[in-house]
Amino acid sequence: MKFSEIVGQNHLKKHLMNSVQSGRIPHAQLFIGPEGSGTLAMALAYAQYIICSNIGLENEGGSAACNLKFDHLQHPDLHFVYPVASNDDVKSNPVSDDFMSKWIEFLKESKYPSINDWYEAINIQKKQGNISVHEAASILKKLSLKSFEGGYKIMIVWMAEKMNTEASNKLLKLLEEPTDKTVFILIAEDEKAILQTILSRCQVLHFNALNEQEIIQGLIEMEACDEVDAYSIAKQAQGNYNKALKLRYNVTDEYPFDEWFVNWVRAAFRANKNARVVTELVKWSDEISAIGREKQKLFLNHCMEMFRQALLLNYNTAQLVYLKPKVENFKLENFAPFVNENNILEIYQEIEDAIYHIERNGNAKIILTDLSIKLTRLIHKKYASNWKLI
Fold this sequence. Notes:
This protein is of the alpha/beta class and 390 residues long.
C-alpha cells in the first residue's frame, strides 16, 4: 500500500514517516477516525514503511521482496485482528485466523471498508461481531515469537472498540510490557468505547472526515471518474470515501432504507388520529427487527440523516441538501415542515436511545415499536396545518 494511494490526510502521512525516519516509533498507536477516513489504509502503508525499511516519502527504496509481500498482504510479520462471530463454517470460539483467507480477499477489494461490509463478507449480518478473550490469547502467542525476518512485528487491530472487557485487559498487559520491536496499531471509530487504560497507553492520532475536494481528487486520479460525476458523488459521500466508492461503482444496499423511512413517517403521521394505524407501525417494527442488529443501527442512522435533510429544507438551506428519498409520491419538501426546532432534538435523542439499546442486545421489536409510538407524538409538534404530507 503506497501513501500516494491514500486519499487526503497528508499531515498524518508526514508525521508517521517522520517518526520512522527519526527512529521514534511508538510501540502502541491508536488511529481514531470515522468510516471512510482512511485509518485502515494508513495503517497498512505505515506497517509496510516500517517493516520493509522504506525511505523517502513513499513505500519505496527498501526491500523489494518485502514490498512485494505487502502488495499481496502476505508478509509473515504483519498480523491482523478484527471482529468475528460464529457462522456456518466456524461454529464456536471464532478468532481472526479462522477468517484470514476471507480477510485478505476483503482487503484486496477495498482499503476503506465498513464494519457492515465485513459482516456481509463473512455472512454474519444478523450478529454483532467482537474481539474475544480467545483472540487475546492468540495475540499473546503470536507476539511471544521472534519476527520471521528479524525486524519489526506489527499487529493491526481493526475496530478495536469491539474488544470485550476480558480481551482488553489481556491486551493491556502486552501494551504495558511489549516485546522487543513490536508495534500495535489499533484502529477505531468510537473513541469513547475504548477502555481508558488502553487509551492512556497509546499515542492517539485523529483522522478527520475527508473534505469534498480530497474525495473529488481521489475519484478522478484513482478511479477514473468524470469531474462532474466526482463532484456529485463527493457531495453525497459526506466525507466517507467508502461511500464515495460505492456510489462511483453503483454498489447499492440490499435493503430499501428510503422506502422503510417513508413508510415509517407516513404511518406515524396518520396514527396520531387513527389508532388502527398503530398496527402498521407494529408490522413495520417486525420487518426492521428481522434484518440484524448492525443493519438496524445503519438504518436508524439513515433515518437521522433524513430528518436532518428535512430540517435543512424547512429552514431554507436547500443548497445543503444532498439526500432525497426516491420513493413514489413522496416529496421531502412537503415533509420538511414537520421537522422543526421544537421536535428535532427529541427525535434525534429517541433514535440515539434506540441505537444504544439495540447495541446492547435489547429486543429490537419492542425498541422499534416504542420509538414509533413516540414519533407519532413528536412529528405533530407545531406543524403547519396547511401543509400536506405526501
